[in-house]
Every structure is written in C-alpha cells, then in structure tokens.
Specification:
It is a single chain. Strand 2 and strand 3 form a beta hairpin. By secondary structure, this protein is an alpha/beta fold. Pfam families: DDE_Tnp_4.
C-alpha cells in the first residue's frame, strides 16, 4: 500500500508594510496628495467611522482612516493604481473594494445634507444676497447655476442616452454655487444627452423649493441663456438694448462667473472629475461626483487651499462644460421674460 502523500503546508501570507501617512507626512504634503490636512482626514473619517470599521480582529485590516485616505487619493488623481503604488499597502483589488465601500458610506443622504444645503431661511438668503451684491451690484441673488459634463466610459445599458452634444459619454451635472464658491445644491444623475433646462425643471429645486414658496420673494438664481427665464431665475438678454438691458447683462456676466470658477475649483481639487471616470455603473460615477462636492465644501469650511497639480497629473482647463442650445423665443416663458424686463427697469435704469 502506497504511503499517503505528505500534507502541503500553506505558505504564510506576506503583507506589504503600510505607510502611516497621517504621522509620516506634514499637513502640506497631505493636502497635496489627499486634499485634506491631518485634522480634516480625521474629521471626514469620524463621519463614517462606524460603517467603515471592520468587525473582525484580523491583522492587516484597513482602518477607517486608511480607507478614507485611499478614497481621497483616488479622487485627487483619478488613478486607482496610485493608491497601491504610494506605499499605502492595499492590492489593486482591495483598493477597488475600499473605494466602493467608502463611497457608499460618504454618499448617504444623511452625510451629504450636512454639508450641501440650499439657503431657504431669511437669515441664509440675506447673507447670500449681500455676498453676491458685493461682486457687481446685482441685487437679490442667492446662487449661480450651471451644468457641467463629467466624462464617463460607455455604460453597458442605455449607452446612447449618455452621449452628449460633443459626442462623448457623460453625466450632466447641475450645480449651484454661492458667492464664496461653496456648493449649495447639486444634481448628479442625468445622462449627458439631457438638456440643462429639463434637469432644472424636474429637480426638487424647481418643484419644491421655489414653486412652493420655501424661498422668500425677491430671491433669484442667475443662469445662462440655456435656461428658461423665471421669476426666480434670471438669464441674460440675447440681444440687449442700450440702457437697463445692457446694464443687467454686464452685472449678470460678472456675478454668474462665480459658478464657472467654482466648477473649475471643484475639478482642480478633485482631478477624477477632469478625465474619463472608468467605473461602472454610471450610478457609481454619480456617487463620486456628489462626494467630491461634499468634500469641496468641507475644504472650504476648513480653509484648505487647492494644491498645484502633481507631476503625475496633467493640469488642464475645464473642457467639459457645454453651452446648451438656445430655445426659440416663442418657446421661452413669457411671464419670466416680462419679470426680467421689470427687474431691469427697477434696478438697472442707471448704470451701476
């Protein structure tokens, strides 16, 4: 009878040594690589420490802080492979899993609404009105609205709906900034083929906030001419006449540039939004966009600057914003146009 084969001994698992970046790097280097300083990383971690804490007692389990750091590195660069190349330790498979887990925790409505809030109280709206009026004398403004396209890889379902007017796949994101470049509202769920005006029309901002009277009278958003004119949404004149109309357009352009610069700041801070986001499905891309918006506001609250691009990143202008087509005059709401004329005559009769 043949002797039994000897039992194969399992080779002990070998773990890469993980770098303790919170203690090894100073705040300047942390901001450069992860967009937050040490206190900021711990602050964000504490928001989701419970969901990110692994209940097992196994060695080498990533701590909640490390999971946040891995996600921040990905959002800052848009490159998952850098997370495992930066001496953080996790394998590429672990990095992907951690990013998914951490995005899920941070994108919960309970977390997002702590940091992205639209001004509706008299105190909040008045503060925004004062801040915006200091820019170019435009009265009654509580936010500047625009759409921006975030490039994605072709989805497996409804692929054609995600192709925008420039021929690439994207998510069309509606975003509102206040005068201090904080995001007060963001809608990230619509395919790139959807027009900015439709996104606004079907948003809770239109149906709940403004149309139901939650915002005090005399409060306005500023939008470009791709949006319909409303009593609460002021757009520029397409062919302004000398006088009040030209004065409105001049102040409107200067004031509304806040949203264009705000989008640029958001995409410079989180480079993942600059290039093609190669994750599936598109709903996960929407999580990335909303988490970046929330983290941007946290950075603003903590006065954290936007670092210059790293050597392994390419700093580019914002090429993803698409100017929406202009609707024919006959299709523009007459009530909104009349209100704009009255507003111009009341506030811009004299050149400010």
């Amino acid at each position: 009878m043949a002797a039994p084969a000897p039992l194969r001994q399992r080779k002990p698992r070998r773990f890469r040594e993980r770098k303790d970046v919170l203690h090894d790097l100073d705040d300047g280097e942390l901001i450069k690589r992860y967009r937050l300083d040490r206190a900021g990383i711990i602050f964000v971690t504490d928001l989701v420490r419970g969901p990110l804490t692994n209940p097992t007692g196994r060695n080498q389990v990533l701590t909640p802080e490390m999971k946040i750091i891995v996600l921040l590195r990905y959002l800052a660069t848009g490159k998952m492979q850098l997370c495992s190349m930066d001496d953080l330790g996790p394998s590429q498979q672990t990095v992907s899993r951690v990013i998914t887990e951490t995005l899920m925790a941070l994108s919960s409505n309970a977390i997002l609404t702590q940091f992205i809030t639209f001004p509706i109280t008299p105190h909040e709206t008045q503060r925004n009105i004062v801040d915006f009026q200091q820019i170019a004398g435009f009265p009654g403004v509580i936010g500047a609205i625009d759409g921006t396209h975030v490039r994605i890889s072709a989805p497996s379902e409804f692929e054609g709906e995600y192709v925008n007017r420039k021929g690439y796949h994207s998510i069309n994101v509606q975003v509102i900034f206040d005068a201090k470049y904080k995001i007060t509202d963001i809608v990230a769920k619509w395919p790139g083929s959807v027009h900015d005006a439709r996104i606004l029309n079907e948003s809770s901002l239109n149906r709940v906030v403004f149309c139901s009277g939650m915002v005090p009278d005399g409060c306005h958003l500023l939008g470009d001419s791709g949006y319909p004119s409303k009593k609460w949404l002021l757009t520029p004149y397409l062919r302004p006449q000398p006088g009040p109309q030209s004065n409105v357009n001049r102040a409107h352009k200067i004031t509304r540039s806040v949203v264009e610069r705000g989008i640029g700041q958001l995409k410079r801070r989180f480079h993942v939004l600059h290039g093609e986001i190669r994750v599936q499905p598109p709903s996960k891309v929407c999580q990335i966009i909303k988490v970046c918006a929330m983290l941007h506001n946290i950075c603003k609250d903590r006065n954290i600057y936007i670092p210059a691009a790293e050597d392994d990143e390419e700093e580019v202008d914002d090429p993803l914003h698409l100017q929406p087509p202009q609707p024919p005059a006959a299709q523009r709401p007459r009530e909104g146009l009349l209100y704009r004329d009255e507003f111009a005559d009341l506030h811009f009769r004299n050149d400010n």
